[in-house]
């Protein structure tokens, strides 16, 4: 199998992460040729990419005779996958409009390879309808996109626009390179979940105390959203039931926003009979406030008493009604991880549980990484090293895909 990646690097601060991508691709034995735009050269010197890729770096169409001879056609033909990382709003706009005015855009235009963009830009730029329209247009023509992450951006803004992390990009490229190859592992099949229907839950729930206060927990929804996005990009039809979170998802995902655990249960009960698999990554509040107030509670006394009653256990309810759905739960623990997780498999009639010690560094709430052990109903245990939540989502889906094929 030939494994040639032509990587386009455009001008953004995420160029420094692009260097890591090249290094990781090379470590996997993939041949990499880098084309840099003029703007990219302001951020990182071409020497960095030349050293990492062990190939000449092309920076201008006409500058050197060698580069001109190799030319856009030669590189376009050599590529099995073209990866544009970071991809600015500018390069996305140019390609979407058919503009080819430098080495990178001419190569993209001349290439018949799979082309994947890893966008990186300011959140307002990313959300600009013009940029979104360009992305949709390119997607409709078969170009691939690796969703940017959310968080603090280099420009000081908070939001979506941070380039996906290098391991996630490398994973994606690897899958594109291996697609349709018989020997490829399940994770390498880009659309291996085509025709499957998934219900994914994410985030916390919030239980009302009064109109301005509520009880909730520290779940950010990142793990559930990562699973929903990954399942969707692998061809599944996805319903995402989410509690209050600050995340957005691909327009093709059916998203149902809920607030309380009881609302989440209701939404899940409606969807459950029609799905093949459920991934319950949400952290629903276990208790609701019985004596919640219709009006804001005033500071009349030194103490107040909230009466809490147990919420329904959504997963247990679904488990008791399970027909042939694959039911995957999560166990967030701070001690006795495996024993508690195994008990949850039995109590909730699960096929698999993703157990994580939320107190471990690199695991838990509101961060982009996770460390978990997967335990199946037949007692098989696999512990995974620290990974991004997107990589974790890929592993969980691989395991579900494996179970689906065995049935
Ligand atoms: N869960 C659920 N409904 C609830 C509480 C939890 O469906 N009311 C699901 C979660 O989505 C998760 C799994 O059950 O997939 C385990 O959640 P966790 O908070 O670890 O455990 P609990 O079952 O709530 O038990 P405990 O809090 O006693 O550990």
Write out key terms for the chains shown:
23% strand, alpha/beta, 21 strands, 407 residues, binds cytidine-5'-triphosphate, five-stranded parallel sheet, Rossmann fold
Describe this protein's structure.
- By secondary structure, this protein is of the alpha/beta class.
- It has 2 domains: 4-178, Rossmann fold (3-Layer(aba) Sandwich), CATH 3.40.50; 197-406, CoaB-like (Rossmann fold, 3-Layer(aba) Sandwich).
- Helices cover 36% and strands 23% of the residues.
- The protein has helices spanning 15-27, 38-43, 46-53, 65-78, 89-97, 103-110, 123-127, 129-140, 166-178, 222-233, 261-271, 314-320, 337-348, 389-406; strands spanning 4-9, 31-36, 81-87, 114-119, 144-145, 149-152, 158-162, 197-202, 207-210, 213-215, 237-242, 254-257, 277-280, 287-289, 308-310, 326-333, 352-357, 369-370, 373-376, 381-383, 387-388.
- A hairpin with a 2-residue loop joins strand 9 and strand 10 (213-215).
- Helix 1 (15-27) runs parallel beside helix 3 (46-53), helix 5 (89-97) packs across helix 8 and helix 10 crosses helix 14.
- It starts with a strand and ends with a helix.
- 45% of the residues are buried.
- Residues 261, 280, 282-284, 286, 311, 313-315, 329-332, 344 line the site of cytidine-5'-triphosphate.
């Amino acid at each position: 199998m030939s494994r040639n990646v032509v990587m386009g690097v455009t001008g953004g601060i995420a160029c420094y992460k692009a260097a890591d991508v090249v290094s990781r691709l090379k470590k996997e034995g993939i041949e990499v040729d880098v084309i840099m735009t003029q703007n990219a050269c302001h951020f990182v010197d071409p020497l960095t990419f030349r050293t990492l890729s062990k190939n000449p770096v092309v920076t201008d169409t006409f500058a050197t005779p060698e580069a001109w001879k190799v030319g856009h056609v030669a590189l376009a033909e050599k590529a099995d996958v073209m990866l544009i990382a970071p991809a600015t709003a500018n390069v996305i706009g140019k390609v979407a409009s058919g503009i080819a005015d430098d080495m990178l855009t001419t190569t993209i235009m001349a290439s018949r390879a799979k082309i994947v963009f890893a966008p990186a830009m300011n959140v307002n730029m990313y959300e600009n309808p013009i940029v979104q329209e360009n992305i949709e247009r390119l997607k409709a023509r078969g170009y691939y996109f690796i969703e940017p992450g959310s968080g603090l951006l280099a420009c000081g803004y908070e939001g979506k626009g941070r380039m996906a992390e290098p391991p996630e990009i490398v994973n994606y490229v690897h899958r594109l390179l291996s697609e349709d190859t018989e020997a490829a592992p399940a994770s390498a099949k880009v659309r291996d979940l085509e025709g499957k229907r998934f219900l994914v839950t994410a985030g916390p729930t919030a239980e009302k105390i009064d109109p301005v206060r509520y009880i909730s927990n520290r779940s950010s929804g990142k793990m559930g959203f990562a699973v929903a996005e990954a399942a969707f990009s692998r061809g599944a039809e996805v319903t995402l039931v989410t509690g209050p979170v600050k995340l957005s998802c691909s327009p093709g995902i059916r998203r149902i926003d809920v607030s309380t655990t009881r609302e989440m249960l209701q939404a899940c009960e409606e969807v459950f009979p029609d799905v093949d698999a459920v991934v319950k990554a949400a952290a629903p509040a276990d208790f609701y406030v019985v004596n919640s107030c219709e009006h804001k509670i005033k500071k009349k006394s030194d103490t107040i008493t909230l009466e809490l009653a147990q919420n329904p256990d959504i997963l247990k309810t679904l488990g008791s009604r399970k027909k042939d759905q694959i039911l995957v739960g999560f166990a967030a623990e701070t001690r006795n991880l495996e024993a508690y997780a195994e008990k949850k498999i039995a109590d909730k009639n699960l096929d698999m549980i993703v157990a994580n010690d939320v107190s471990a560094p690199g695991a838990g709430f509101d961060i982009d990484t996770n460390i978990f052990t997967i335990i199946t109903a037949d007692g098989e245990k696999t512990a995974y090293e620290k990974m991004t939540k997107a990589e974790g989502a890929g592993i969980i889906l691989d395991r579900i895909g494996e179970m689906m094929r065995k049935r």
